[in-house]
Amino acid sequence: MPLKPLVPAAIRKPFARYSHGIEIPAGARIVVVSGQLGIRADETIPESAEEQAELCLANIAAILAEADMTLADIARLNAYVTDRAHMAGYMAARDRVVATPPPASTLMIVSGFVRPEFKVEIDVIAAKAP
């Protein structure tokens, strides 16, 4: 049984490409991924929020692959940006890779991360039915 989106008709539709809730079937394997930052293996950090988000999602894809999962198995996605100006870049990167139906999601604006050049951080919970 796949992940089931929960988007009740009785409440306002989501503001963007996400589901209000996701039901994870009993017996599914669950992977919790720590927040990923937009930094390359060579320690370089792209300037744009969109490129940083792309790296965050690529890192998440690599972590999920270790558990025989893909980005399509994401049930919950939490994203953090340091300015409203970075929301569009983050959302563009996210919308290119999230599954249909999309996962449950939260986007927050925060004051900063451990290094000032970071603009985006993303963490996820993924689940895959047996």
UniProtKB/TrEMBL annotation:
Keywords: Hydrolase. One of its GO terms (molecular function) is hydrolase activity. InterPro entries: RutC-like_sf (IPR035959), YjgF/YER057c/UK114 (IPR006175). Transmembrane segments: none annotated. Its EC number is 3.5.-.-. The keyword S-adenosyl-L-methionine does not apply. SUPFAM superfamilies: YjgF-like (SSF55298). It is an enzyme of class 3 (hydrolase). It comes from the Bacteria. PANTHER family: BLR7761 PROTEIN, YJGH FAMILY PROTEIN. This is RidA family protein. It comes from Methyloraptor flagellatus.
